[in-house]
Amino acid sequence: CSSLAIGTTTGYRLFSLSSVEQLDQVHESNEIPDVYIVERLFSSSLVVVVSHAKPQQMNVYHFKKGTEICNYSYSSNILSIRLNRQRLVVCLEESIYIHNIKDMKLLKTILDTPPNTTGLCALSINHANSYLAYPGSATSGEIALYDGNTLKTACSIPAHDGPLAALAFNSTGSKLASASEKGTVIRVFSIPGGQKLYEFRRGMKRYVNISSLVFSMDSQFLCASSNTETVHIFKLEHLTDSRPEEPPTWSGYMGKMFQAATNYLPAQVSGMMNQDRAFATVRLNISGQRNICALSTIQKLPRLLVTTSDGHLYIYNLDPQDGGECVLIKQHSLLGSGKTEENKENDLRPPLPQSYAATVARQSAVPSTSTMPGYSEDGGALRGEVIPEHEFATGPVCLDDENEFPPVSI
């Protein structure tokens, strides 16, 4: 949650989110129009782009060098792409491709997945724990959990009654949050076991389309946004009976009565009564638009970031102690004229030391057409078989410069 990537009708833009007041544009490309997927590998120079002009083709770039590392074509439109330091995952409507990001080799094809028209999938950002989650059913809320490192199915989680709408791992890959198309209940499961840890009720009055689920980096908070004007932030904490005695009030007395009553109610009913409400909320000044949220620390304070499909970024303060209504402190337009004077000064800095950029820029490391072989030539991988590690050729991508990446805490 330290940078923002947006696709536009003219190309794509990358922004740094290190400041509240100043939105720094890191890069802008107008080489490919109508970009609808742009995924950056953390703070590195590796970016993956898919355009409406060629929706079946994935282009991998090193944007600081202006070099195309490779491009792959698929049998149908690419719906989503996820990546960490170990794996690059490409999701089509009825299949998923898993690549080794260090050489872009195809490791595994998961064929005949249930119809997944939105390309819903989640990949743990912790590369030592590269779990992949995707819908295990088109009619129910079953989650298929796959180990992207061992390339084996981990488990199946019966998360919801209705079809899934959102999935998100926490930063360590030890928890997975999910929501169904109804959008009323959000559940959090342990990974890889699949045990239910938390259940949050977003609201009972109306069904909503949850478009974004995200954990804070410390896994203390979970944020959910939808097509309504309200963003909910839940706090992941276990309430125990060791809390200090509350002063005797009518509401406290009734609360204890309800708590006692749950011991005699069916599990389904008592579970609903024990669900937690939102710890903090935000009321956007728009509704009906798709948006993406992030919980981040900017200038040493916890912030909620909301990016809307009309091209705006909203930054809110989050009170980690008392929650409540978050306060809007800054609004940025993402579709402005381009770099500011401050951004231009950043371009005058001395060049970074040689990194894996030097590797990807060498022609000897890349086929002369800068295009990797299509999957039709990868017979074994096309049938869903695993390519043994010793068969990997020296590929065009060598992530050998750890200075390009933020530190990883495992």
What keywords describe this structure?
mainly beta; Methylamine Dehydrogenase, Chain H; four-stranded antiparallel sheet; 5 helices; 40% strand; disordered C terminus; PROPPIN; WD40_repeat_dom_sf
Topology:
Layout: E1 3-7, E2 12-16, E3 24-29, E4 35-40, E5 46-51, E6 54-62, E7 67-73, E8 80-83, E9 87-91, E10 95-100, E11 105-111, E12 122-123, E13 131-135, E14 141-147, E15 152-160, E16 164-169, E17 175-180, E18 185-190, E19 196-201, E20 210-215, E21 221-226, E22 230-235, H1 250-262, H2 267-273, E23 280-283, E24 291-298, E25 301-308, E26 312-317, E27 324-325, E28 327-333, H3 341-346, H4 356-361, H5 379-382
Parallel strand pairs: 23-27
Antiparallel strand pairs: 1-2, 2-3, 4-5, 5-6, 6-7, 8-9, 9-10, 10-11, 12-13, 13-14, 14-15, 16-17, 17-18, 18-19, 20-21, 21-22, 22-23, 24-25, 25-26, 26-28
What does this protein look like?
The chain is mainly β and 410 residues long. It has a domain at 1-111 and 379-394: YVTN repeat-like/Quinoprotein amine dehydrogenase (Methylamine Dehydrogenase, Chain H), CATH 2.130.10. It is built from five helices and 28 strands. The strands form seven sheets. Strands 20-21-22-23-27 form a five-stranded mixed β-sheet, with no helix packed on it. The chain has a four-stranded antiparallel β-sheet with strand order 4-5-6-7. Strand 1 and strand 2 form a beta hairpin. It is globular and about 50 Å long. It starts with a strand and ends in a 28-residue tail after the last helix. Mean pLDDT is 79; it is low at 239-255, 266-274, 338-395, 399-403 and 405-410. Pfam families: PROPPIN. It is found in: Preautophagosomal structure membrane.
